[in-house]
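[#protein-structures] MJ: dropping UDP-N-acetylmuramoylalanine--D-glutamate ligase here for a structure pass
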Amino acid sequence: MRLVVLGAGESGVGTAILGQQKGYEVFVSDFGKIKDSYKQVLTDNAIEWEEEQHTEAKILNATVVMKSPGIPEKVAIVKKLVAQGIPVISEIEFAAPFTKATTIGITGSNGKTTTTMLAYHLLQSAGLNVGLAGNIGKSFAWQVAEANYDSYVLELSSFQLDGIIDYKPHIAIITNISPDHLDRYEYKYENYIDSKFRITKNQTEEDYLIYDADDPAITTWLQNNKTRAKLIPFSLTKTFEEGAYIKDNIMKVAINQDDFTIETETIALEGKHNMKNAMAATSVAKLMQIRKATIRESLSNFQGVEHRLENVLKIQNVQYINDSKATNVNATFFALDSMNAPTVWIVGGVDKGNDYNELMSLVREKVKAIVCLGIDNKKIIDAFGTVVDVMIEANTMQDAVKLAQRLTEKGDAVLLSPACASFDLFENYEDRGNQFKQAVQNL
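AK: finished. structure tokens for UDP-N-acetylmuramoylalanine--D-glutamate ligase:
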């Protein structure tokens, strides 16, 4: 049995360790450079690896190939593997058969990290022996190799779901769907939607699908396609016999003839989108039979997620907010929607085919000035140049924050919510968010 791992990042190295432990002959190949810390792990475990190349002779003789989520299907080596009928799967698909743990899989265009962290917080606070993996922290495969959890909360991207054949979560969540990563889906929105719904394709009548019943892409798919899972909807506008909703500032979650209620103002997270994340995570807690008092307490003390509407500092009565994780228009829509003060908005980066029109009414209502932070800001300037009074460009975070400060007065807010990827000026969204926080602290 020969396991070839393409990509030596967190998921790749974790898979290599698990594969070796389960008796596979393992080979790791990365077309780029491998981080020193990962090289050390591979070497310490006597796992053969290569970087900056793919040696076909060592790859095309695989029994199974685990492809890291960042590698597109259209890469030459992947096409050759598929043509030869060698299964190319994701880390989740590879690792799942090696654990008896219950898995809770969470996907969506936005909100999945917050929902994942909150669900994990709810289960962990109740004393469950629970792991956290997927797109977050230590890889699922690595934890299956080294830890012994009874359940896992997994944040799953569409790329991870593309590589599943038999995997099914016992509880699946789709937080929402909006156009994102379309460059990986032949620019067809329906392909991306289908990819998200792979999370439920192997589920049975014993399993659950929790979903946003206000989301047109989700509800249309469910009207036209079948899943065997038991459906648990959540909504800000509708009410259900079975499901979660908000009415008169009370969040109600009704599952298995048992109702849980909490006043929305006692929930630590703020904003309409976060009420949805709270309903989804609370539905998980109810299905996992967590006590109501524990759920209430956990919802009121949850700290939120770094780089997602994170309050950094208040300086001269101006609140600085880091929402660097907003890498698409839909995420920025939620951020602007939750702003209650006149806002100086820092926006820009690598555009993934954004349509800024859907932000227009919010920008008119909430934004007093825009600071463009990117190498190419033309599209943003064309979209909002006539809508806001002040629009300026910056090409370092330091400058962007200083310019934003000059444009504020008491009671305003400065919001970094880029609506774009970060790769033009930063390593990733975390680097962008950390530079923002540093720049704010230096004011």
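MJ: nice. Residues 272-287 form the longest helix (16 residues).
AK: one more thing. The chain has three domains: 2-89, 93-301, 310-441.
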